[in-house]
Amino acid sequence: MLIGEVAQRSGVSTRMLRHYDSLGLVRPTGRTTGGYREYSDADLERLVQVESLRSLGLSLRDVARALDDPAFSPEELTDRLIRETQARMAADTTLLARLRQIRSARPEDWSTVLDVVGLLRGVRSEHAAHRQRAALRANELGVPGEPLAEALLVESDANVAGALRWALAQLPDSLGPLISGAAEDDPLILRRAVAALAGVDDAHAVRTLEQALTDTDPVVRRTAASALGRLGREPAVPALVELIAAGDGDVEAAEILAAFGDDQRIIGVLVDRLGDDPDPAVRLRLVQALAEFAADAASPALERLTTDRDETVSRTARYIRERSREG
After folding, report:
1. Phi, psi (5° rounding) for residue 38?
2. CA-CA distance, 245 to 273, in Å (whole number)?
3. What is the pLDDT of residues 123-140, one digit of tens each?
4. Could you say which of 6, 102, 294, 317 has the lowest number of CB atoms within 10 Å?
5. Residue 192 lies in a domain
6. Which InterPro entries match (predicted)?
């Protein structure tokens, strides 16, 4: 079973499945000739076990130990999870009380004002740990989204940037600076802005991402195309096709296109753009992309490619077509 189908059936995203693979937590039994992950029944059973343990609050590291280390004690683990859950509940109770104090105190409570000022200074600290801690406390103190968005656009540390994006996703007033950042000439600021907007399903964010599809920076184009494709936005289709043509994130692009649900039309676009490309490597990527679509929809295109003048292309098309028939 290919990764797209596993993601659809299990509810685990393809990104998380790749992460599990990189950690050695759930590794597919093999790969197709085109490099696509292929999962066996045993792999799927392992995935169910991983998700079951994660639902109890285990870290991925603990999940791996629980499944692979015979000496790992379920009793000790359960006791620890109970303690950690109780601690989180106590912290949440404290946080809830604090938020209610902020709401009731308003600006007259100067200690709250000072806390917010301190947090805003924290997101600009020279120490990454301080910036990350401040970002994670932003929602606790009711900090507005604008200064956090501005901090994100200049943030170079990946962990801090992740914390800032998490905080911004919960705030309604952060789009302005991010949209402005997407118009910057500085490529780093532009990439950070587009990456942040990629997680926002908002009309203004979507419009900005659509404009980024024609940017000269390939990273920006790929980020925008992938984000819009996951939202099912039509302007992403030709951009994703071009990613397959260029071999730039082509596997992910094919998976996203296959998720549109309009297989016949999307396959037609792929074949029209890539089917007669003079470069056999491009036609091979077309064949590999067709493996992501439903067998009955992809079969005519694959049959045509079984007679391709390049032996690798024709052989791969025959293999995928025969395998889809067996499935």
Report:
1. -130, 120
2. 8
3. 788 899 999 998 888 877
4. 294
5. no
6. ARM-like, ARM-type_fold, DNA-bd_dom_put_sf, MerR-type_HTH_dom, MerR_fam, PBS_lyase_HEAT
Q: What are residue 31's DSSP bridge partners?
A: 37
Classify residue 35: in a domain, yes or no. no
181-191 pLDDT per residue, tens: 999 889 999 99
- SS3 of the chain: the string is CEHHHHHHHHCCCHHHHHHHHHHCCCCCCEECCCCCEECCHHHHHHHHHHHHHHCCCCCHHHHHHHHHCCCCCHHHHHHHHHHHHHHHHHHHHHHHHHHHHHHHHHHHCHHHHHHHHHHHHHCCCCCHHHHHHHHHHHHHHCCCHHHHHHHHHCCCCHHHHHHHHHHHCCCCCCHHHHHHHCCCCCHHHHHHHHHHHCCCCCHHHHHHHHHHCCCCCHHHHHHHHHHHHHCCCCCHHHHHHHHHHHCCCHHHHHHHHHCCCCHHHHHHHHHHHHCCCCCHHHHHHHHHHHCCCCHHHHHHHHHHHCCCCCHHHHHHHHHHHHHHHHC
Amino acid letter for position 14: T
Tally of structural domains, the chain: 1
Question: Could you identify the residue written with the tokens 């997680």?
Answer: 199
In a domain, 293, yes or no: yes
Give CA angle at 56 (21, 169), nearest 5°.
70
Phi, psi (5° rounding) for residue 30?
-160, -170
Angle of CA points 304, 8, 260, to nearest 5°: 55
C-beta separation of 148 from 136 below 8 A: no
* Residue 3 counted as domain residue: no
Q: Residue 15 pairs with which residues in a beta bridge?
A: none
pLDDT of residue 326: 66
